[in-house]
Predict the 3D structure of the following.
Amino acid sequence: MNYETVIGLEVHAQLLTKSKMYCGCSTDYASTPPNTHVCPVCMGMPGVLPVINRQAVEYTMMTALALNSPISEYTRFDRKNYPYPDLVKGYQISQYDAPIGQKGWLTIEVDGVTKKIGITRVHLEEDTAKLLHRTSPDGEDYSLVDINRSGVPLMEIVGEPDLRSPEEARQYLIKLRSILQYLGVSTGNMEEGSFRCDANISIRPVGSAELGPKVEVKNMNSFKAVFLAMEYEARRQRKAATEGKKLVQETRGWVEDKGRTVSQRSKEYAHDYRYFPEPDLPPLVIGRDWVEEVGKRLPELPEARRDRFIAEYDLPLYDADFLTREKAVAEYFEEGARVGKEVSPKEVSNWLLGEVSRIINAGNIDIDGFRKKVSPPMLCGLILSSHGTINAATAKTVLEDMFKTGKTADEIIKESGLSQISDTQELEKIVAEVINSNVQPVADFKAGKETALKFLVGQVMKATKGRANPQLVNEVLKQKLVEDSSS
Ligand SMILES: [Zn+2]
């Protein structure tokens, strides 16, 4: 039997507000000592009252609008009850059946096909505390709790089960993160846990309208992990179904180093949480004038910027799409493209897609890490040098040096004497030496073996440590060899 994979993703994104969701404590939990941003409200002491963070509501409204989701006029906060060590209050203030945004969508592109993916809901809740698991010197396991993160605004975006492959799931996440970053509402950093994803995955016979028992997969902390976990689950479920085993609704965790998912617990249902309207908060009514006002704050979003890059900088779709996926990359490009007339936007794009991406991937950093060493004007300076002073191969090594040292291309070229040898006389001397010391290849070339010329060019490049202009080397070599034969 042929099966199709059905995936729906739930994303939790921490919002970039200054204070927590329901109290005035700072959200800066990452760089401060444990348990220093804590108050009776985020500790859930009896008799204290939460207050809704306006900025968090507006960020959620902006996200919903960017995801083509209408903003509910009447929304409410609900209490989600569950006992867990990282939940000091014993409950979380979340939203259940009256979320801020519902029924939106975004588009993804896979293999050149554009697909619309539904967004079920966008709602607001609070993060939990952080548990740190330790082992004492005598081998006893214990846990520490840091409440600083407890109460940080968390936006949940639940997607419809419209995704049909691990690649579609990956593209959905990339797009969603891109939108949040453009809006400036979240860092979208998956490794640091400010952008987290749980996936619901099931299989069903092709053509069936019903969903199979769904498995929720947790603990994936990179786009790659999501992709690999979905591939693994789709395979595992197909195998079980083919062998006639019964699939069960459960929660499984992704174990990165083993490359597999393991069963954690049977899945809980909504009624397990005993949701009820949060008694300490009034319903939140969102007036239409407020929606209109927040709507005006929406910046240019990734797709609009992509289309503008094509029109304004005359870039191919492939380049524009790549450059606009991450807001920081798009900004780096635009700064570079606006620097000078001598460097074309397409050249800046070529370098970003090529060498710069290679350095970023190799160093496991992002564009901001690259920018700290090589600013857009510095990259343009290098591109300008590659028009004459240095050749293309040298330019690549100069960029690596720029990244390592933070120096400009001019400084590096001067210091290491990398300027291209464009002086014909100097080059003629070197060519003569190469001809003299490579008797056999020279004879081969004269006998009509064209590949021998390539070898000789290579020898000249080697002798000049790559500083010669290859075209000029070709010309001078040919000329010399012809002179040789006629003399
Ligand atoms: Zn607090």
In short: The CA atoms of residues 32 and 148 lie 8 Å apart. The chain has a mean pLDDT of 90. The chain has three domains: 3-293, 302-415, 424-486. Residues 20, 23, 25, 38-39, 41-42, 151 surround zinc ion (CB under 6 Å).
